[in-house]
């Protein structure tokens, strides 16, 4: 389970990624073109040397970024509820 901070770092990485391997692409994005040029290089997301392609071909990870942001919001609101509950119990 990723912490909020790790998720925020991942969002930043996805937003700044210019190239991606197909593993990271399908994990965080949706393949949006019929075919794309693939070459060997360093994936901006996982940092491994793999066959990579442009992040554009995975719609710039919009689906993955949206999902991560939703998860962060949910975790933050959960935390707030827990804080409120412990405060109420203390008083
Ligand atoms: Zn990758």
Q: What would you say this structure looks like, in words?
A:
- 21% of the residues are buried.
- Strand 2 (39-42) and strand 3 form a beta hairpin.
- The radius of gyration is 17 Å and the shape is elongated.
- The two termini are 32 Å apart.
- It has one domain.
- The protein has helices spanning 4-16, 22-28, 62-90, and strands at 19-21, 39-42, 49-54.
- By secondary structure, the protein is of the alpha+beta class.
- Helices cover 54% and strands 14% of the residues.
- Helix 1 runs antiparallel to helix 3.
- Strands 1-3-2 form a three-stranded antiparallel beta sheet.
- Bound molecules: zinc ion (ZN).
- Zinc ion (ZN) is lined by residues 20-21, 23-24, 43, 45-46, 48.
- The site of zinc ion has 8 residues, from strand 1 and helix 2.
Topology:
Layout: H1 4-16, E1 19-21, H2 22-28, E2 39-42, E3 49-54, H3 62-90
Antiparallel strand pairs: 1-3, 2-3
Helix pairs in contact: 1-3
Bound molecules: zinc ion.
Zinc ion (ZN) binds at residues 20-21, 23-24, 43, 45-46, 48.
